[in-house]
Structure prediction request, 138 residues.
Amino acid sequence: MTKDSNSSIRTPLGAARGLGSAKAGMHHWWMQRASAAALVPLSLYWLTCLPEMTTGTYAHFISWIGSPLVAILAILFIIASFYHAVLGLQVIIEDYVTSEGRKLALLMLNNFTFIALGAACIFAILHISFSLHGYEAP
Prediction:
C-alpha cells in the first residue's frame, strides 16, 4: 500500500516546517510598500513640476534644480525610486531564474547597477547645487 499526498497525516504547519524563515520576506514586503508610499507624494510633486522642468532655458533649469528644496526632493525621489526598483527586480530574479549561480550574479548586478546609477544621479544634483551656491572645488 502506497501513501499519496492526500492521505498524509502531516498538518500544513508540519509540512511548512523546515522550508525557511518568512522573516526576510516580510521585511522585503514592507520595504517595497514603504518605498511605494514614499514615491506617491514625490511623484505627485514631480508631475506638478513638469512644466517647470520642460519650459525655459537650460540655465533656468539648472538654477531651478540647484535650489536646496528641489535638490533635496530630487535626491529623495532618486533614493526611493531606485530602492523600489532594486526590490522589485530582486523578486523577479528570485522567482524566475532557476540557476543558483546565474541568480546570484544577476542579484549582484542588480544591486551594483542601481547603486552606481543612484550615486551618479545624486552626485550630479549635489554638484549642480553646490556649484550654484559658491562651493566650487579648487
Observations:
- Residues 31-132 form a domain with the 3 helical TM bundles of succinate and fumarate reductases fold (CATH 1.20.1300.10).
